[in-house]
Amino acid sequence: MTIASPEKRVWWNEPIERVELIWIAIAFLWGLFMFFFMVAWHFFGGQNLSNETYRVTPGEYEQKVYDFAGQYQVGEEAGVPVVQPPVGGDAYMLARLWEWWPILQLREGESYRIHLSSADWQHGFSLLPTNINIQVHPGYEHVITVTPTEAGEYGIVCNEYCGIGHHQMLGRIIVLASEGGAQP
Ligand code: CUA
Description:
Layout: H1 18-43, E1 52-55, H2 58-72, E2 73-77, E3 80-83, E4 90-96, E5 99-101, E6 103-107, E7 112-118, E8 123-128, E9 132-136, E10 140-146, E11 152-158, E12 170-176
Parallel strand pairs: 3-6, 4-7, 6-12
Antiparallel strand pairs: 1-10, 2-3, 4-5, 7-10, 8-9, 8-11, 11-12
The chain binds dinuclear copper ion (CUA).
């Protein structure tokens, strides 16, 4: 019971104000527009990653990463191979307790298909300083097509809590300046 009873006891039978109905309609239509525009952002603005996903076992995926690293290794840093995939080709990165393996070396202005999966638990691929975040699950191979636009060193951190070494789960992607100098 309220202290003062409403003037009209059956308030829910009152007709809705015309202005309120108009606002409800506008809000509803705007909601629908925004919902379907999520698809449009895929084509305009390039905001959504166009990723593909495939089933894979952790063992199969690990083997792919080792084969890839064995084939294209160009260096080593602190025991971690630096691997340079062919331009336009596939690059593999493995998430595991607690590292991103190996170090990738890409070339500015070229496209690569970057494969991501986990050998054990769920991890979060967060590319710094860009705003790219991708969930990495064991059993799923994500493929993201990227074209680095700026040379430099990019850090990878894990942004999904994965145990005692989570804060040390770091990785690196090196982007070399394009061979022909600055891109037009
Ligand atoms: Cu991997 Cu947190």
